[in-house]
Amino acid sequence: MNREAIEESLNKLRKHGVRITPQREAVLQYLVQSSEHPTADEIYKDLAPKFPKISVATVYNNLRLLTRLGIVEEMSYGDNSSRFDFAETKHYHAVCERCGRIVDVFFPDFDQVDTVAENLTGFQVSGHRLEVYGLCPQCQAELAADQKIAN
């Protein structure tokens, strides 16, 4: 699936007249293979050893391009750095309020949300975004352990 997703994305770039550079392909591959929703700086730090001449600006420019073409989704949460997610499959996100971890949530009726909203409001819906907030299992366990120690 990953190689197929990368090839489809590369073809989309070519259709838009975008040159495929090794750095651009590396950023794309990184996002396709990552489930961590990385920041641009995290991508840069991970790619720099393999691409010594890559710059933070190159990573940011490629992320902007991939976002503009709908290949990547930029996620901004408050004052934190933007995080990036490969946008092949539509999904929602669960965000930990304590550590900031983001987990993909797949909902089978994703596309029906737009239709229901249009029917209920009369809006011509162009899209939607939903995040669920709470505590991830690791933070729950840490807080429970802290609570035990405090008692």
From TrEMBL:
Cofactor note: Binds 1 Mn(2+) or Fe(2+) ion per subunit.
Localization (cell): Cytoplasm
CDD domains cross-referenced by the UniProt entry: Fur_like (cd07153)
Binding positions (Zn(2+)): 96, 99, 136, 139
One Gene Ontology cellular component: cytoplasm
Keywords carried by this UniProt record: Cytoplasm, DNA-binding, Iron, Manganese, Metal-binding, Repressor, Transcription, Transcription regulation, Zinc
Gene Ontology molecular-function annotations: DNA-binding transcription factor activity; transcription cis-regulatory region binding; zinc ion binding
Signal peptide: none
Coiled coil: none
Domain of life: Bacteria
Gene Ontology biological process terms from the UniProt entry: negative regulation of DNA-templated transcription; regulation of secondary metabolite biosynthetic process
Family membership noted in the UniProt record: Belongs to the Fur family.
Name this polypeptide is given: Peroxide operon regulator
The organism of origin for this protein: Agrilactobacillus composti DSM 18527 = JCM 14202
